[in-house]
Amino acid sequence: MQLLPPLAESLHAAAGLIAAVIAGRNFDTFLARAGLSGPLRAATMDLAYSTLRAFGRGDFLLGRLLARAPKDAAVRGLLLVALARLEARPDEAHTTVDQAVTAAARLGRGQFKGLVNGVLRNFLRRRAELLALADADAVARWQHPAWWIARLQQDHPQHWETILAAGNSHPPLCLRVNRRRTSACDFLAQLDAAGIAARALDDTAILLDKPVPVERIPGFDAGLCSVQDWGAQAAAGLLDVADGMRVLDACAAPGGKAAHLLESAAIELTALDADVMRAARIGDNLQRLGLAATVKVADARAVDAWWDGRAFERILADVPCSASGVVRRHPDAKWLRREADIAAFAATQQAIVDALWLTLAPGGKMLYATCSVFAQENARQVEAFLGRHTDARQVKTQEATTSDAHFLPDAEHDGFYFALLQKA
Q1: Does residue 352 share a domain with residue 332?
Q2: Contacts (Cβ under 8 Å, ≥6 apart) of 74
Q3: How many whole angstroms separate alpha carbon 142 and alpha carbon 161?
Q4: Contact between residue 416 and residue 231 where contact means Cβ atoms under 8 Å apart
Q5: What is the spatial distance between Cα 409 and Cα 331, in angstroms, rounded to a whole number?
Q6: Which residues are CB-neighbours of 380 under 8 A, at least 6 positions away?
Q7: Which is the catalytic residue, given 225, 251, 321, 371?
Q8: Confidence tier at 108 by pLDDT (50, 70, 90)
Q9: Please, what is the average pLDDT of the chain?
Q10: What is the DSSP-derived secondary structure letter of residue 402?
Q11: Beta-bridge partners for 369
Q12: Domain CATH for 207
């Protein structure tokens, strides 16, 4: 196969990834199978992520440029990738069109070159008109599905616009210092020596000015730090663990919060996950950090299959959810998710917390956590739980002005929800 120029190669590879998402496939799964590496992988991911974040806008524009979508999904993907790049880098329009046409030649022995060239040049001629139309369309402007926008307007009437804007942004890269091996101050000095600009957010969280590959982070392989969003790091402090406690992380993979709990106190930790492959990642992460826990592959709802009857003093219920608070890290989720999925997640969440409550000791605390911004998975879920369990009360946390803690996504952290529940 003839080698393409670097930009054409990454446009071609990104087109395949977008085509897979359009077909309903998970982006990360397909990326892992694509076999990309080095600069090509980095460039392809940048193009694909940018295209998926702006998919609602690109699809709108393509609908005005073509009478009907191309039958070949890869051609549609290539056009979407090229349109996203044309809008993001207008000063490189000639290069983008030229390289997209070159990439199109590989897709169909030249039969798509004319189509791609014509569509992209038509966009450039009509750019001002088409972008004005896009800005007047809610899905194209906010780059989220209509049902998603409507939910946020209902759940967060004062903040829905900023949440949507954050969902379209590039995510920050935050590190959690392993306090058993170093301090934030000392680790900042190591980053500075490595030429990585960063600042401390608290005594464990360090925010990098610009994301870098983990291979560049000093001491990462030696377990001096982990990559973990600042919002996610709040869980360990909210759960209030102390030395000697018996603690359960019920949905633990890939192990970031479990590791943080172990770094915070000398506890006896059990980490559960229902997926065999994901559970293996828990052990790998703990080993890198020099930590130990009992890792079990089990469904948290099937208590009889994994619980030994000894009550836990603390439980972290980081339940499966829509991931609507971390969508900028997984932009395909915006377009693969359906509104009916939210009710399905809520039903799973209810079953998990009801089952876990049986294993909590009297006086013990359970932290309910999601990376969602939807009320059905958060405040309404907790309200319903309290209605079902008369032996439960919600404990106010220092991080919240109300009884729960809702971290809306911004430049420093993703979106998370926490509610601390105590057993009578």
Answers
A1: yes
A2: 15, 16, 19, 107
A3: 8
A4: yes
A5: 14
A6: none
A7: 371
A8: confident
A9: 95
A10: S
A11: 318, 418
A12: 3.30.70.1170
Which residue segment(s) compose the domain that 184 sits in? Answer: 173-228
For residue 350, give both structure tokens: 């209810």
Question: Is the model more confident about 13 or about 398?
Answer: 13
160: in domain: no
Looking at the fold, whether 405 and 419 belong to one and the same domain comes out as yes
CATH number at residue 112: 1.10.940.10
Q: What is the CATH number of the domain that holds 351?
A: 3.40.50.150
417 φ/ψ angles, rounded to the nearest 5 degrees: -130, 135
The answer to pTM > 0.85 is yes
Both 130 and 100 in one domain: the answer is yes
Tokens of 64: 């005005």
Active site residue 371: yes
Residue 208 sits in the same domain as residue 271 = no
Residue 153 lies in a domain: no
Amino acid at 398: Q
* 318 and 382 co-located in one domain: yes
Which tokens sit at 23? Answer: 């077909």
What Rg, from alpha-carbon coordinates, does the chain have?
23
Measured distance CA(271)–CA(232) in Å, rounded = 17
Check whether residue 270 and residue 380 sit in a common domain.
yes
Above 70 in pLDDT, residue 219? yes
- Which percentage of the chain shows pLDDT scores above 90? 90
Residue that the structure tokens 């990738």 belong to? 81
CA distances from 206 to 154, 175, 358 (A): 34, 5, 37
**What is d(CA 127, CA 86) in angstroms, rounded to the nearest whole number?**
10
Cα 112 to Cα 102: distance, rounded to the nearest angstrom: 10
Q: Alpha helices of 23-72 — where are they, by DSSP H?
A: 27-34, 38-53, 55-65
CB burial of 203-220 (b: ≥16 within 10 Å; e: otherwise) equals ebbbbbeeebeeeebbbb
CA distance 231 to 393: 24
Residue 380 within any structural domain of the chain: yes
Q: What is the rounded CA–CA span in Å between residue 100 and residue 108? A: 13
Interatomic CA distance for residues 189 and 46, integer angstroms: 30
Nearest residue to 152 via CA among 22, 322, 27: 322
Listing DSSP states for 312-381 in one string gives EEEEEEE-----GGGTTTSTHHHHH--HHHHHHHHHHHHHHHHHHHTTEEEEEEEEEEES---GGGTHHH
In sequence order, what are the beta bridge partners of 406? 417
Structure tokens at 368: 């309910």
Tokens matching residue 336? 């693969």
Both 70 and 186 in a single domain? Answer: no
